[in-house]
Amino acid sequence: MGPFIGGFLTSTFGWRSIFLVNVPLGILVLFIIRTQLVGEWADARGESFDLPGALVYGLSLVFVMYGFSRLPDRAGLALVIAGTVFIAVFIWWENRTPQPLLKLSLLVKNRVFAFSNLAALINYSATFAVTFLLSFYLQYIRGLTPVAAGTILVIQPIVMAVFSSYAGKLSDRIEPGKIASMGMAMTACGLFLLSFIAVDTSYAYLIGTLVLLGLGFAFFSSPNTNAVMSSVKKHEYGVASGTLGTMRLVGQMLSMGIAMVIISLFIGPVMITPDVADQLLAGIRIGFTIFAILCCCGIFFSLVRGKVREA
C-alpha cells in the first residue's frame, strides 16, 4: 500500500507526512514486539547481544547511505570511504567475537546460504529504486498527480502480495533456487522492458510491466527466503534472518545510490521539474538498463547456489 498511501499523504499533507506517519507505526511495532514475541528464538537463549558490532555496523550504514546521497560530491565520496572503513572494522570484529551479530562463517562454509544472500543483495540493488524512478516518470514526464501515480505503482506490490504465498508453497515442493531464479529472470525482463519507456508509452504497457515485475518479485523473494532459512540450523534462524535483512537494506541503499548518481549526472544540481523532462527520461532509461544487467548477473548466482535439500 506504500505507493498509494504515500501519494495520498504527499498530496494532502505534504511530503514530510510520509516520514511522520512512521512514528506511531514504529511505536506500535515496538509494543507488539515487547508484548507478543516473548520467548521467540528460544534455541538461542543465553547468547549475548553483540552491541559493539551493532554500533559499528549502524555507523557504517549511516556513512555509506548518506555518502551515496551526496555523490558525486567530494563530501559524498569521503563519507562512502569512511563507511567502507567501518565495514572493514565490523568484519574484523565479527571474526573475533564469540557470538557475532553476523556469522561470517556461514557465508564462507555454507554455499546455499552465501549465494542466496548474494542473490538477495543483487535483486534488491536492481529493484528497490524502480518505484522511485517510475514516480518521477509518471509525475514529471507524464504529468500525473502523486495520488494517480501511486495508484498505478501499487499494482506491482499487489501482484507480489497475491502470488508470494503461492511461490513460497511451491518452493517447498520444488527446489527453491529454481523458483527464485525464475523470479529473477522475470524481474530482469520487466526491467529490460522499462528501459524502452518514452514520453508517449501507453499505460497498458506500464501496467503490464508492473504486473511482470510483481510476479518476478513474488517468485524470487519467498523461495529465496525459504532457501536461506532452510540452509541453517534452528538456533541460527535469528542470525540468518538478520543477514538476509542486511542484504535487503544494503541492496536498497545501493539501488537508491545508483539512481541518485544517475539523476545527478543527467540533470545536475537543479530542482526536478518538467523543464528537465528530456534529461530525466534519458537517465531513467539508463537506470533501468543498469538494473536489468544487474538482475541478469543475479540469475547466475541464484542458479549456482546449490540444492537446499542437500545442504
Which tags fit this structure?
Growth Hormone, Chain: A; 2 domains; single chain; 0% strand; 311 residues; mainly alpha; 77% helix
Architecture overview:
This protein is mostly helical and 311 residues long. It folds into two domains: 57 residues; 203 residues, Up-down Bundle (Growth Hormone, Chain: A). Helices cover 77% and strands 0% of the residues. It is built from 14 helices and no strands. The relative contact order is 0.15.
Q: What is the tally of beta strands?
A: 0
What integer value in Å does the Rg equal?
A: 20 Å
**What is the helix content?**
over 70%
Strand content: under 5%
Average pLDDT, all residues:
85
Topology of this structure?
Elements: H1 2-13, H2 16-20, H3 22-36, H4 51-70, H5 74-94, H6 104-109, H7 111-127, H8 130-141, H9 146-153, H10 155-173, H11 176-194, H12 203-230, H13 237-267, H14 277-303
